[in-house]
Design goal:
The protein is α/β, with parallel strands linked by helices. 37% of the residues lie in helices and 10% in strands. A hairpin with a 2-residue loop joins strand 7 and strand 8.
Length: 529
């Protein structure tokens, strides 16, 4: 009997598994050449929740930026922003960049593009390496009334104070009910990992309620009262969402920590402040250091991952000649899917590991940094290779022993252990060109977050960027116009780069996936006025 159980265990551990990563986001290109074959879809999706048209790609059939000249300027702006963060700009580049950065109408178009592309950026990073990984897109924003909210009775008979209170209550109920419905939906679709690169920040909700109070009453709300309202709001959504997640202990939830440069222990951020055995909160790293825009928290932010100047996919609708495009980005929105990808690889190696054990492996195999001990639970940045090594060892050893041996460096690792992705020649050539310099500081104001409001029908998304272990260098000088011949990888806002190996960080176990892009869209830098 014992030998039969051993054979069964051996079979379970060695059968080809597939991890499914749910990506709660918007701007997700379901028809993208790279993403489409990796999308998990069930025939009954629309039957289960017909009001959530998860697999309808209509929102990306038309670009929000239709002017090709403007689109090229947006790409250039993003590229120069990434280069600025890496090693600075030339005088001509800086002058052009500053002019565009001070142009409010142009920046609004940049933000519109980012919001329309965010889910595609995130998906590319979640699939950065490893095989047998599927993604399950859920449009977490801009879905008309996904929850049947009861209409307020007698609203017209209420005074301004009562209407303000109703607005606050409606906002928090919307967030809670939406999150509850998402989790139920995921539990019915064999999801192992949830990537949530979005958030509600203390700053954004404070601003929102301040404006709402003035809208309803015509008066300024007292700051002390406002703080009490905001604190109660976060207490409610965090408490109820924690109870929701506790119902799904077999799913690992990966949250981006936020881009306000704040301490999440002191200033709440939703949902990343939810702390459970099956949740991971991820900060953005700038090389070996915490990115200047990234939130942190000794108690509530678990680990750091690449989050500055990350290249990623751009929806194909923006390609005028059908070529794949990608663009750079920075933020914790990019760091979270890096961790989700690592978790997926670990699950594929040993599907008997629980979410807590996967979390333990990721946290305890990270590269500890003295300066991170005061900012992160693990005091470390993720080490993909060591985490995968430990996962392999768990087939024959305890979790603790596997982690200890993996960290010892005594066990040699071959790149092929990351499920079939040998080091691509192109990736190796790119790695040799990676810049050694540490990116310059990025202020929180430079990183946009998609927030949820009572008027919005979905969860808030924070646009952020991450700097993967793999990082493609930007051109030292802005080149002349060339064909947009690039491959896909996710980005989400400012100029930053995509997940290809960086010499400034430890390269991931399988380095860059062969499908990742190799060139940025190029446009000329306009001359000074």
């Amino acid at each position: 009997m014992k030998s039969l159980l051993s054979l069964l265990l051996f079979f379970c551990l060695n059968v080809a598994s597939a991890s499914n990563i749910a990506i709660i986001d918007t701007g997700f290109d379901l028809d993208h050449d790279f993403l489409k074959p990796k999308i998990l879809k069930h025939e009954s999706d629309e039957e289960i929740f017909s009001d959530w048209n998860f697999h309808d790609n209509q929102h990306l059939k038309e670009p929000v930026i239709k002017d090709q000249s403007l689109l090229q300027e947006i790409f250039l702006y993003r590229n120069l922003r990434a280069k600025k963060h890496k090693d600075g700009l030339s005088v001509a580049e800086l002058e052009w960049f500053q002019r565009r950065d001070n142009d409010k109408k142009f920046i609004e178009q940049v933000k519109k593009f980012k919001k329309h592309s965010h889910g595609t950026f995130v998906a590319g990073i979640a699939l950065r390496e490893g095989e047998n990984i599927k993604i399950f897109p859920l449009r977490g924003i801009q879905i008309a009334q996904p929850v049947n909210m009861p209409k307020s009775k007698g609203l017209t008979n209420k005074n301004s104070e009562e209407r303000f209170k109703d607005n606050v209550t409606s906002s928090q109920d919307r967030v809670i009910r939406k999150f509850s419905k998402i989790c139920l939906y995921l539990s019915l679709n064999d999801i192992n990992i949830v990537n949530a690169s979005y958030g509600i920040s203390f700053k954004s909700i404070t601003t929102k309620f301040r404006e709402k109070y003035k809208e309803f009453t015509g008066l300024e709300i007292e700051e002390q009262r406002l703080k009490l309202v905001v604190d109660e709001y976060f207490q409610n959504i965090l408490k109820h969402s924690t109870e929701i997640i506790q119902k799904y202990p077999r799913i690992l939830f990966v949250f981006s920590a936020g881009n306000s440069g704040q301490d999440n222990d002191l200033s709440p951020h939703y949902p990343s402040k939810i702390k459970l055995p099956n949740t991971l909160s991820v900060a953005a790293m700038n090389g070996d250091y915490l990115a200047s825009f990234s939130n942190f928290g000794k108690t509530h932010v678990d680990i750091g991952a690449p989050g500055v100047a990350i290249l990623s996919f751009v929806p194909k609708v923006y390609s005028h000649d059908g070529q794949n495009l990608f663009s750079p980005s920075s933020g914790t929105s990019m760091a979270a899917p890096y961790i989700s990808n690592t978790a997926a690889q670990i699950f594929n190696i040993n599907p008997l590991l629980s979410p807590y054990e996967i979390k333990q492996i990721i946290l305890e195999t990270g590269d500890a940094k003295e300066h991170l001990k005061i900012n992160l639970v693990s005091g470390a940045t993720v080490n993909n290779q060591t985490a995968i090594k430990a996962a392999l060892l768990t087939k024959n050893m305890t979790i603790a022993a596997s982690i200890e041996l993996a960290r010892s460096g005594l066990i040699p690792m071959e790149d092929s252990i990351s499920f079939g992705h040998p080091i691509a020649i192109e990736a190796e050539l790119l790695k040799n060109k990676v810049l050694d310099s540490i990116p310059k500081d990025i202020s929180p104001q430079e990183i946009e977050e998609i927030q949820i409001t009572s008027e919005e029908s979905s969860l808030p998304l924070e646009i952020e960027t991450n700097k993967p272990d793999n990082l493609i260098p930007l051109p030292s000088v802005a080149p002349s116009v060339q064909k947009l011949d690039v491959d896909p990888t996710p980005a989400n806002q400012n100029q930053e780069q995509f997940p290809l190996p960086s010499e400034a960080q430890k390269s991931s176990s399988s380095q860059a996936s062969p499908q990742l892009p190799q060139n940025l869209p190029l446009v000329p830098v306009p001359s000074s006025p």
